[in-house]
Design a protein that fits this description.
homodimer, about 250 residues, alpha/beta, N-(1-d-carboxylethyl)-l-norvaline Dehydrogenase, domain 2, 2 domains, eight-stranded mixed sheet, 10 helices, about 50% helix
Protein backbone atom coordinates (compact mmCIF):
# COMPACT_ATOMS: atom_id res chain seq x y z
CA UNK A 1 0.00 0.00 0.00
CA UNK A 2 1.14 3.54 -0.76
CA UNK A 3 1.60 5.49 2.45
CA UNK A 4 4.57 7.78 1.93
CA UNK A 5 4.46 10.08 -1.10
CA UNK A 6 7.16 12.40 -2.42
CA UNK A 7 5.99 15.40 -4.42
CA UNK A 8 8.09 16.91 -7.19
CA UNK A 9 6.99 20.46 -7.93
CA UNK A 10 5.47 23.22 -5.81
CA UNK A 11 3.08 24.96 -8.21
CA UNK A 12 -0.70 24.95 -8.11
CA UNK A 13 -1.31 21.28 -8.85
CA UNK A 14 1.48 20.16 -6.49
CA UNK A 15 -0.04 22.31 -3.76
CA UNK A 16 -3.68 21.28 -4.21
CA UNK A 17 -2.77 17.59 -4.56
CA UNK A 18 -0.42 17.61 -1.55
CA UNK A 19 -3.04 19.20 0.64
CA UNK A 20 -5.64 16.66 -0.50
CA UNK A 21 -3.21 13.77 0.28
CA UNK A 22 -2.40 15.29 3.67
CA UNK A 23 -6.10 15.65 4.43
CA UNK A 24 -6.52 11.94 3.70
CA UNK A 25 -3.84 11.18 6.33
CA UNK A 26 -1.17 10.22 3.81
CA UNK A 27 2.41 11.02 4.70
CA UNK A 28 4.48 13.38 2.53
CA UNK A 29 8.10 13.00 3.69
CA UNK A 30 9.56 15.35 1.10
CA UNK A 31 8.84 18.16 -1.36
CA UNK A 32 11.38 18.46 -4.17
CA UNK A 33 11.29 21.68 -6.20
CA UNK A 34 13.59 23.96 -8.12
CA UNK A 35 11.74 26.93 -6.66
CA UNK A 36 12.91 27.32 -3.03
CA UNK A 37 10.25 29.93 -2.23
CA UNK A 38 7.13 27.97 -3.19
CA UNK A 39 8.88 24.68 -2.28
CA UNK A 40 9.59 25.78 1.29
CA UNK A 41 6.07 27.18 1.65
CA UNK A 42 4.51 23.91 0.50
CA UNK A 43 6.82 21.80 2.70
CA UNK A 44 5.64 23.85 5.70
CA UNK A 45 1.99 23.26 4.77
CA UNK A 46 2.58 19.52 4.40
CA UNK A 47 5.00 19.20 7.36
CA UNK A 48 7.65 17.71 5.14
CA UNK A 49 11.31 18.23 4.29
CA UNK A 50 12.16 20.52 1.38
CA UNK A 51 15.03 19.94 -1.04
CA UNK A 52 15.98 21.13 -4.51
CA UNK A 53 18.45 18.24 -4.87
CA UNK A 54 17.02 15.36 -6.96
CA UNK A 55 19.81 13.02 -5.75
CA UNK A 56 18.77 13.26 -2.14
CA UNK A 57 15.42 11.46 -2.01
CA UNK A 58 14.17 10.21 1.37
CA UNK A 59 12.56 6.73 1.59
CA UNK A 60 9.16 6.85 -0.17
CA UNK A 61 6.49 4.56 -1.71
CA UNK A 62 5.67 6.85 -4.64
CA UNK A 63 6.97 9.92 -6.41
CA UNK A 64 4.33 12.21 -7.93
CA UNK A 65 5.74 14.51 -10.60
CA UNK A 66 3.61 17.70 -10.68
CA UNK A 67 5.52 19.94 -13.06
CA UNK A 68 5.16 21.49 -16.51
CA UNK A 69 4.87 18.93 -19.33
CA UNK A 70 8.04 20.26 -20.95
CA UNK A 71 10.26 19.27 -18.02
CA UNK A 72 8.80 15.85 -17.17
CA UNK A 73 11.25 13.86 -19.34
CA UNK A 74 14.39 15.53 -18.03
CA UNK A 75 13.26 15.14 -14.40
CA UNK A 76 12.50 11.43 -14.90
CA UNK A 77 16.06 10.86 -16.16
CA UNK A 78 17.53 12.23 -12.94
CA UNK A 79 15.34 10.06 -10.68
CA UNK A 80 16.21 6.63 -9.15
CA UNK A 81 13.96 3.66 -9.99
CA UNK A 82 11.23 4.33 -7.42
CA UNK A 83 7.53 3.89 -8.32
CA UNK A 84 6.46 7.12 -9.99
CA UNK A 85 3.59 8.90 -11.77
CA UNK A 86 2.98 12.23 -13.43
CA UNK A 87 -0.22 14.28 -13.31
CA UNK A 88 -0.34 15.54 -16.89
CA UNK A 89 -3.38 15.25 -19.12
CA UNK A 90 -1.41 15.25 -22.35
CA UNK A 91 1.92 13.52 -21.65
CA UNK A 92 2.07 9.85 -22.63
CA UNK A 93 2.74 7.24 -19.92
CA UNK A 94 5.62 5.79 -21.92
CA UNK A 95 7.88 8.70 -20.93
CA UNK A 96 8.69 6.42 -17.97
CA UNK A 97 9.59 3.44 -20.18
CA UNK A 98 12.87 2.51 -18.42
CA UNK A 99 11.40 2.38 -14.91
CA UNK A 100 9.83 -0.63 -13.15
CA UNK A 101 6.55 0.72 -11.74
CA UNK A 102 5.02 3.79 -13.27
CA UNK A 103 1.77 5.42 -14.25
CA UNK A 104 -0.39 8.53 -14.32
CA UNK A 105 -2.74 10.27 -11.89
CA UNK A 106 -4.55 12.96 -13.90
CA UNK A 107 -7.14 15.04 -12.03
CA UNK A 108 -9.62 16.60 -14.49
CA UNK A 109 -9.45 20.11 -13.12
CA UNK A 110 -7.51 23.30 -13.74
CA UNK A 111 -5.55 24.52 -10.76
CA UNK A 112 -4.45 28.09 -10.80
CA UNK A 113 -5.75 29.89 -7.80
CA UNK A 114 -5.74 30.22 -4.07
CA UNK A 115 -9.40 29.26 -4.03
CA UNK A 116 -10.32 26.20 -2.01
CA UNK A 117 -11.28 23.16 -4.02
CA UNK A 118 -13.05 19.97 -2.96
CA UNK A 119 -10.76 17.26 -4.33
CA UNK A 120 -13.36 14.58 -3.54
CA UNK A 121 -15.50 15.89 -6.42
CA UNK A 122 -12.72 15.96 -9.02
CA UNK A 123 -12.66 12.96 -11.41
CA UNK A 124 -9.22 11.33 -11.37
CA UNK A 125 -7.89 9.28 -14.31
CA UNK A 126 -5.43 6.52 -13.43
CA UNK A 127 -3.08 4.63 -15.73
CA UNK A 128 -0.26 2.20 -14.92
CA UNK A 129 2.27 -0.11 -16.59
CA UNK A 130 1.22 -3.15 -14.54
CA UNK A 131 -1.88 -4.39 -12.75
CA UNK A 132 -0.55 -4.61 -9.19
CA UNK A 133 0.78 -1.06 -9.27
CA UNK A 134 -2.44 0.08 -10.98
CA UNK A 135 -4.48 -1.29 -8.10
CA UNK A 136 -2.30 0.58 -5.64
CA UNK A 137 -2.84 3.81 -7.58
CA UNK A 138 -6.60 3.27 -7.73
CA UNK A 139 -6.62 2.65 -4.00
CA UNK A 140 -4.69 5.88 -3.49
CA UNK A 141 -7.06 7.75 -5.86
CA UNK A 142 -10.07 6.49 -3.89
CA UNK A 143 -8.65 8.09 -0.76
CA UNK A 144 -8.71 11.58 -2.24
CA UNK A 145 -11.60 11.44 -4.76
CA UNK A 146 -15.02 9.85 -5.10
CA UNK A 147 -14.62 9.52 -8.89
CA UNK A 148 -11.65 7.40 -9.95
CA UNK A 149 -11.37 5.99 -13.50
CA UNK A 150 -8.82 3.68 -15.11
CA UNK A 151 -8.03 5.02 -18.61
CA UNK A 152 -5.24 4.56 -21.16
CA UNK A 153 -3.03 7.43 -22.40
CA UNK A 154 -5.01 7.89 -25.61
CA UNK A 155 -8.34 8.32 -23.85
CA UNK A 156 -6.73 10.58 -21.25
CA UNK A 157 -5.46 12.82 -24.07
CA UNK A 158 -8.97 13.00 -25.57
CA UNK A 159 -10.32 14.10 -22.19
CA UNK A 160 -7.56 16.68 -21.86
CA UNK A 161 -8.36 18.14 -25.29
CA UNK A 162 -12.08 18.37 -24.49
CA UNK A 163 -11.24 19.92 -21.10
CA UNK A 164 -9.22 22.64 -22.83
CA UNK A 165 -12.17 23.43 -25.09
CA UNK A 166 -14.81 23.31 -22.35
CA UNK A 167 -12.87 25.17 -19.67
CA UNK A 168 -10.02 27.23 -21.13
CA UNK A 169 -12.02 28.45 -24.13
CA UNK A 170 -15.16 29.21 -22.14
CA UNK A 171 -13.04 31.14 -19.64
CA UNK A 172 -11.56 33.11 -22.53
CA UNK A 173 -15.11 33.98 -23.64
CA UNK A 174 -15.75 35.35 -20.13
CA UNK A 175 -12.54 37.36 -20.47
CA UNK A 176 -13.54 38.85 -23.84
CA UNK A 177 -16.93 39.81 -22.36
CA UNK A 178 -15.22 41.41 -19.35
CA UNK A 179 -12.81 43.39 -21.51
CA UNK A 180 -15.67 44.60 -23.70
CA UNK A 181 -17.69 45.72 -20.66
CA UNK A 182 -14.63 47.41 -19.10
CA UNK A 183 -14.26 49.48 -22.25
CA UNK A 184 -17.89 50.60 -22.00
CA UNK A 185 -17.52 51.38 -18.27
CA UNK A 186 -19.99 48.64 -17.43
CA UNK A 187 -19.53 46.25 -14.55
CA UNK A 188 -18.64 42.60 -15.21
CA UNK A 189 -20.74 41.75 -12.12
CA UNK A 190 -23.81 42.16 -14.35
CA UNK A 191 -22.90 38.93 -16.18
CA UNK A 192 -22.01 36.80 -13.16
CA UNK A 193 -25.42 35.21 -12.50
CA UNK A 194 -25.70 34.45 -16.23
CA UNK A 195 -22.27 32.77 -16.34
CA UNK A 196 -23.01 30.56 -13.34
CA UNK A 197 -26.50 29.70 -14.61
CA UNK A 198 -25.19 28.79 -18.09
CA UNK A 199 -22.61 26.40 -16.61
CA UNK A 200 -25.22 24.85 -14.30
CA UNK A 201 -27.70 24.35 -17.15
CA UNK A 202 -25.13 22.67 -19.40
CA UNK A 203 -24.28 20.30 -16.54
CA UNK A 204 -27.85 19.55 -15.44
CA UNK A 205 -29.28 18.97 -18.90
CA UNK A 206 -27.17 19.04 -22.07
CA UNK A 207 -25.33 21.94 -23.73
CA UNK A 208 -27.18 21.20 -26.98
CA UNK A 209 -30.53 21.97 -25.32
CA UNK A 210 -29.08 24.86 -23.29
CA UNK A 211 -27.96 26.88 -26.30
CA UNK A 212 -29.66 30.27 -26.69
CA UNK A 213 -28.83 33.56 -28.39
CA UNK A 214 -29.04 35.19 -31.82
CA UNK A 215 -27.03 32.51 -33.67
CA UNK A 216 -29.12 29.69 -32.18
CA UNK A 217 -32.27 31.53 -33.33
CA UNK A 218 -30.73 32.31 -36.72
CA UNK A 219 -31.14 36.04 -36.04
CA UNK A 220 -28.72 37.45 -38.63
CA UNK A 221 -29.84 41.05 -37.97
CA UNK A 222 -28.58 40.97 -34.37
CA UNK A 223 -25.42 39.09 -35.40
CA UNK A 224 -24.62 41.86 -37.91
CA UNK A 225 -25.40 44.55 -35.34
CA UNK A 226 -23.00 42.87 -32.86
CA UNK A 227 -20.26 42.53 -35.48
CA UNK A 228 -20.55 46.27 -36.14
CA UNK A 229 -20.39 47.06 -32.41
CA UNK A 230 -17.20 45.01 -31.87
CA UNK A 231 -14.32 47.31 -32.78
CA UNK A 232 -11.57 44.79 -32.00
CA UNK A 233 -10.87 42.89 -35.22
CA UNK A 234 -9.81 39.72 -33.35
CA UNK A 235 -12.97 39.62 -31.25
CA UNK A 236 -14.98 40.27 -34.42
CA UNK A 237 -13.35 37.18 -35.99
CA UNK A 238 -14.14 35.05 -32.93
CA UNK A 239 -17.75 36.28 -32.82
CA UNK A 240 -18.14 35.54 -36.53
CA UNK A 241 -16.60 32.06 -36.46
CA UNK A 242 -18.49 30.89 -33.36
CA UNK A 243 -21.79 32.30 -34.66
CA UNK A 244 -21.31 30.60 -38.03
CA UNK A 245 -20.73 27.30 -36.25
CA UNK A 246 -23.79 27.73 -34.01
CA UNK A 247 -25.90 28.59 -37.09
CA UNK A 248 -24.64 25.40 -38.76
CA UNK A 249 -25.16 23.26 -35.65
CA UNK A 250 -28.80 24.35 -35.42
CA UNK A 251 -29.42 24.27 -39.16
CA UNK A 252 -30.19 27.99 -39.48
CA UNK B 1 -48.39 51.88 -9.07
CA UNK B 2 -48.32 48.95 -11.45
CA UNK B 3 -50.51 46.16 -10.13
CA UNK B 4 -52.12 44.52 -13.16
CA UNK B 5 -49.77 43.27 -15.89
CA UNK B 6 -50.67 41.83 -19.29
CA UNK B 7 -48.12 39.47 -20.85
CA UNK B 8 -47.71 39.16 -24.61
CA UNK B 9 -45.99 35.93 -25.51
CA UNK B 10 -45.88 32.48 -23.93
CA UNK B 11 -42.31 31.31 -24.56
CA UNK B 12 -39.54 30.82 -22.03
CA UNK B 13 -39.04 34.42 -21.00
CA UNK B 14 -42.81 35.09 -20.84
CA UNK B 15 -43.20 32.03 -18.63
CA UNK B 16 -40.31 32.70 -16.24
CA UNK B 17 -41.20 36.39 -15.92
CA UNK B 18 -44.93 35.72 -15.40
CA UNK B 19 -44.20 33.22 -12.66
CA UNK B 20 -41.81 35.66 -10.95
CA UNK B 21 -44.48 38.41 -11.10
CA UNK B 22 -47.11 36.04 -9.77
CA UNK B 23 -44.82 35.00 -6.94
CA UNK B 24 -44.46 38.68 -6.00
CA UNK B 25 -48.27 38.89 -5.70
CA UNK B 26 -48.74 40.91 -8.88
CA UNK B 27 -51.90 40.33 -10.84
CA UNK B 28 -51.77 39.02 -14.42
CA UNK B 29 -55.28 39.47 -15.87
CA UNK B 30 -54.40 38.22 -19.35
CA UNK B 31 -51.92 36.26 -21.46
CA UNK B 32 -51.94 37.17 -25.16
CA UNK B 33 -50.18 34.76 -27.49
CA UNK B 34 -50.37 33.48 -31.05
CA UNK B 35 -49.58 30.01 -29.75
CA UNK B 36 -52.77 28.65 -28.14
CA UNK B 37 -50.98 25.61 -26.67
CA UNK B 38 -48.26 27.39 -24.67
CA UNK B 39 -50.55 30.41 -24.18
CA UNK B 40 -53.28 28.34 -22.51
CA UNK B 41 -50.72 26.50 -20.40
CA UNK B 42 -49.19 29.75 -19.15
CA UNK B 43 -52.60 31.31 -18.47
CA UNK B 44 -53.43 28.32 -16.29
CA UNK B 45 -50.17 28.71 -14.36
CA UNK B 46 -50.83 32.43 -13.83
CA UNK B 47 -54.59 32.07 -13.26
CA UNK B 48 -55.31 34.51 -16.06
CA UNK B 49 -57.43 34.74 -19.20
CA UNK B 50 -55.91 33.58 -22.47
CA UNK B 51 -56.52 35.23 -25.82
CA UNK B 52 -54.85 35.31 -29.22
CA UNK B 53 -56.79 38.44 -30.17
CA UNK B 54 -54.73 41.64 -29.78
CA UNK B 55 -57.89 43.78 -30.04
CA UNK B 56 -59.42 42.32 -26.93
CA UNK B 57 -57.23 43.60 -24.10
CA UNK B 58 -58.65 43.57 -20.55
CA UNK B 59 -57.99 46.57 -18.28
CA UNK B 60 -54.30 46.61 -17.31
CA UNK B 61 -51.55 48.91 -15.92
CA UNK B 62 -48.75 47.57 -18.11
CA UNK B 63 -48.21 45.38 -21.16
CA UNK B 64 -44.97 43.39 -21.18
CA UNK B 65 -44.01 42.20 -24.68
CA UNK B 66 -41.98 38.98 -24.33
CA UNK B 67 -41.59 37.85 -27.93
CA UNK B 68 -38.87 37.42 -30.55
CA UNK B 69 -37.13 40.67 -31.51
CA UNK B 70 -38.29 40.31 -35.11
CA UNK B 71 -41.98 40.59 -34.22
CA UNK B 72 -41.84 43.36 -31.63
CA UNK B 73 -42.51 46.21 -34.11
CA UNK B 74 -45.52 44.62 -35.76
CA UNK B 75 -47.09 43.72 -32.41
CA UNK B 76 -46.63 47.28 -31.09
CA UNK B 77 -48.53 48.62 -34.10
CA UNK B 78 -51.56 46.53 -33.27
CA UNK B 79 -51.68 47.61 -29.60
CA UNK B 80 -53.74 50.46 -28.05
CA UNK B 81 -51.84 53.24 -26.22
CA UNK B 82 -51.42 51.50 -22.87
CA UNK B 83 -48.11 51.73 -20.95
CA UNK B 84 -45.84 49.07 -22.42
CA UNK B 85 -42.31 47.61 -22.33
CA UNK B 86 -40.37 44.91 -24.13
CA UNK B 87 -37.81 42.55 -22.59
CA UNK B 88 -35.23 42.46 -25.39
CA UNK B 89 -31.52 43.06 -24.86
CA UNK B 90 -30.90 44.30 -28.36
CA UNK B 91 -34.06 46.13 -29.51
CA UNK B 92 -33.98 49.90 -29.14
CA UNK B 93 -36.54 51.59 -26.90
CA UNK B 94 -37.58 53.93 -29.70
CA UNK B 95 -39.58 51.17 -31.41
CA UNK B 96 -42.37 52.48 -29.16
CA UNK B 97 -41.97 56.10 -30.35
CA UNK B 98 -45.67 56.81 -30.97
CA UNK B 99 -46.88 55.67 -27.55
CA UNK B 100 -47.20 57.78 -24.39
CA UNK B 101 -45.53 55.66 -21.69
CA UNK B 102 -43.01 53.06 -22.72
CA UNK B 103 -39.74 51.43 -21.77
CA UNK B 104 -37.72 48.26 -21.39
CA UNK B 105 -37.34 45.57 -18.73
CA UNK B 106 -34.34 43.46 -19.76
CA UNK B 107 -33.38 40.59 -17.44
CA UNK B 108 -29.72 39.57 -18.01
CA UNK B 109 -30.33 35.85 -18.25
CA UNK B 110 -30.99 33.30 -20.93
CA UNK B 111 -34.25 31.46 -20.57
CA UNK B 112 -34.63 28.24 -22.43
CA UNK B 113 -35.40 25.46 -20.04
CA UNK B 114 -37.77 23.97 -17.59
CA UNK B 115 -35.18 24.41 -14.87
CA UNK B 116 -36.18 26.55 -11.91
CA UNK B 117 -34.52 29.92 -11.73
CA UNK B 118 -34.28 32.38 -8.85
CA UNK B 119 -35.41 35.64 -10.45
CA UNK B 120 -34.30 37.61 -7.38
CA UNK B 121 -30.67 37.02 -8.37
CA UNK B 122 -31.06 38.11 -12.00
CA UNK B 123 -29.89 41.67 -12.76
CA UNK B 124 -32.68 43.63 -14.47
CA UNK B 125 -32.01 46.62 -16.73
CA UNK B 126 -34.74 49.25 -16.87
CA UNK B 127 -35.24 52.05 -19.39
CA UNK B 128 -38.15 54.44 -19.91
CA UNK B 129 -39.24 57.44 -21.97
CA UNK B 130 -40.16 59.53 -18.91
CA UNK B 131 -39.16 59.77 -15.28
CA UNK B 132 -42.50 59.02 -13.64
CA UNK B 133 -43.02 55.87 -15.68
CA UNK B 134 -39.34 54.92 -15.10
CA UNK B 135 -39.88 55.07 -11.33
CA UNK B 136 -42.90 52.82 -11.66
CA UNK B 137 -40.83 50.30 -13.65
CA UNK B 138 -37.98 50.40 -11.13
CA UNK B 139 -40.48 49.82 -8.36
CA UNK B 140 -41.86 46.85 -10.28
CA UNK B 141 -38.32 45.54 -10.94
CA UNK B 142 -37.49 45.73 -7.25
CA UNK B 143 -40.42 43.45 -6.50
CA UNK B 144 -38.98 40.61 -8.57
CA UNK B 145 -35.19 41.16 -8.39
CA UNK B 146 -32.60 42.37 -5.89
CA UNK B 147 -30.49 43.91 -8.67
CA UNK B 148 -32.27 46.59 -10.68
CA UNK B 149 -30.33 49.06 -12.86
CA UNK B 150 -31.46 52.03 -14.92
CA UNK B 151 -29.62 51.98 -18.26
CA UNK B 152 -30.09 53.54 -21.70
CA UNK B 153 -30.60 51.51 -24.90
CA UNK B 154 -26.97 51.84 -25.97
CA UNK B 155 -25.56 50.46 -22.71
CA UNK B 156 -28.18 47.70 -22.69
CA UNK B 157 -27.04 46.63 -26.16
CA UNK B 158 -23.43 46.50 -24.96
CA UNK B 159 -24.50 44.26 -22.09
CA UNK B 160 -26.46 42.05 -24.47
CA UNK B 161 -23.45 41.65 -26.77
CA UNK B 162 -21.17 40.75 -23.85
CA UNK B 163 -23.82 38.32 -22.54
CA UNK B 164 -23.88 36.54 -25.91
CA UNK B 165 -20.09 36.14 -25.80
CA UNK B 166 -19.92 35.10 -22.15
CA UNK B 167 -22.90 32.74 -22.14
CA UNK B 168 -23.82 31.58 -25.66
CA UNK B 169 -20.24 31.13 -26.81
CA UNK B 170 -19.09 29.42 -23.62
CA UNK B 171 -22.08 27.07 -23.88
CA UNK B 172 -21.07 26.29 -27.45
CA UNK B 173 -17.58 25.40 -26.18
CA UNK B 174 -19.22 22.93 -23.77
CA UNK B 175 -21.14 21.52 -26.72
CA UNK B 176 -18.02 21.05 -28.86
CA UNK B 177 -16.34 19.28 -25.93
CA UNK B 178 -19.39 17.04 -25.45
CA UNK B 179 -19.55 16.12 -29.14
CA UNK B 180 -15.83 15.33 -29.16
CA UNK B 181 -16.16 13.09 -26.09
CA UNK B 182 -19.27 11.38 -27.53
CA UNK B 183 -17.22 10.46 -30.61
CA UNK B 184 -14.55 8.87 -28.40
CA UNK B 185 -17.15 7.03 -26.32
CA UNK B 186 -16.18 9.05 -23.28
CA UNK B 187 -18.70 10.46 -20.82
CA UNK B 188 -19.38 14.22 -20.73
CA UNK B 189 -19.92 13.79 -16.97
CA UNK B 190 -16.12 13.74 -16.63
CA UNK B 191 -16.00 17.46 -17.48
CA UNK B 192 -18.88 18.63 -15.33
CA UNK B 193 -16.97 19.51 -12.14
CA UNK B 194 -14.42 21.36 -14.30
CA UNK B 195 -17.12 23.40 -16.09
CA UNK B 196 -18.77 24.46 -12.83
CA UNK B 197 -15.43 25.24 -11.17
CA UNK B 198 -14.27 27.33 -14.15
CA UNK B 199 -17.45 29.45 -14.05
CA UNK B 200 -17.17 29.87 -10.28
CA UNK B 201 -13.53 30.93 -10.47
CA UNK B 202 -14.20 33.52 -13.18
CA UNK B 203 -16.98 34.95 -11.03
CA UNK B 204 -15.11 34.90 -7.70
CA UNK B 205 -11.86 36.34 -8.99
CA UNK B 206 -11.37 37.53 -12.58
CA UNK B 207 -11.31 35.53 -15.82
CA UNK B 208 -7.89 37.03 -16.62
CA UNK B 209 -6.37 35.37 -13.55
CA UNK B 210 -8.43 32.18 -13.98
CA UNK B 211 -7.08 31.36 -17.43
CA UNK B 212 -5.14 28.08 -17.64
CA UNK B 213 -4.26 25.62 -20.40
CA UNK B 214 -1.67 25.14 -23.14
CA UNK B 215 -2.29 28.49 -24.89
CA UNK B 216 -2.03 30.42 -21.62
CA UNK B 217 1.30 28.66 -20.93
CA UNK B 218 2.44 29.17 -24.52
CA UNK B 219 2.76 25.38 -24.95
CA UNK B 220 2.80 25.17 -28.76
CA UNK B 221 3.62 21.43 -28.69
CA UNK B 222 0.33 20.54 -27.00
CA UNK B 223 -1.58 23.01 -29.18
CA UNK B 224 -0.22 21.28 -32.30
CA UNK B 225 -1.00 17.85 -30.84
CA UNK B 226 -4.59 18.94 -30.17
CA UNK B 227 -4.99 20.40 -33.68
CA UNK B 228 -3.88 17.06 -35.10
CA UNK B 229 -6.34 15.16 -32.89
CA UNK B 230 -9.32 17.31 -33.94
CA UNK B 231 -10.61 15.78 -37.15
CA UNK B 232 -13.47 18.23 -37.63
CA UNK B 233 -12.15 21.11 -39.72
CA UNK B 234 -14.51 23.64 -38.15
CA UNK B 235 -13.55 22.71 -34.60
CA UNK B 236 -9.90 22.85 -35.68
CA UNK B 237 -10.47 26.43 -36.87
CA UNK B 238 -12.13 27.40 -33.58
CA UNK B 239 -9.34 25.76 -31.53
CA UNK B 240 -6.71 27.58 -33.59
CA UNK B 241 -8.36 31.02 -33.47
CA UNK B 242 -9.08 30.94 -29.72
CA UNK B 243 -5.60 29.61 -28.91
CA UNK B 244 -3.97 32.32 -31.03
CA UNK B 245 -5.97 34.94 -29.16
CA UNK B 246 -5.08 33.48 -25.74
CA UNK B 247 -1.39 33.37 -26.76
CA UNK B 248 -1.63 37.06 -27.74
CA UNK B 249 -3.52 38.03 -24.60
CA UNK B 250 -0.81 36.49 -22.39
CA UNK B 251 2.09 37.66 -24.58
CA UNK B 252 3.33 34.15 -25.42
Amino acid sequence: MIKKITIIGSGNIATKLSLALKQSKLNIPQIISRNPKTGLLLSKQTESVFTNNFNNILPTDLIIICINDDHICSVIKSLPDIAMVHTSGSTDMNVFIDKKNYGVIYPIQSFNTNLDIDFQKIPICIESNNKIFGEKLINLGNQISKKVFYLNSEKRKHIHLSAVIAANFSNFCYLIAKKYLDKQNLDFDLLKPLIIETAKKAVIQNPFLSQTGPAKRGDQKIINQHLEMLNDKNYKKIYKLLSENILMEYGK
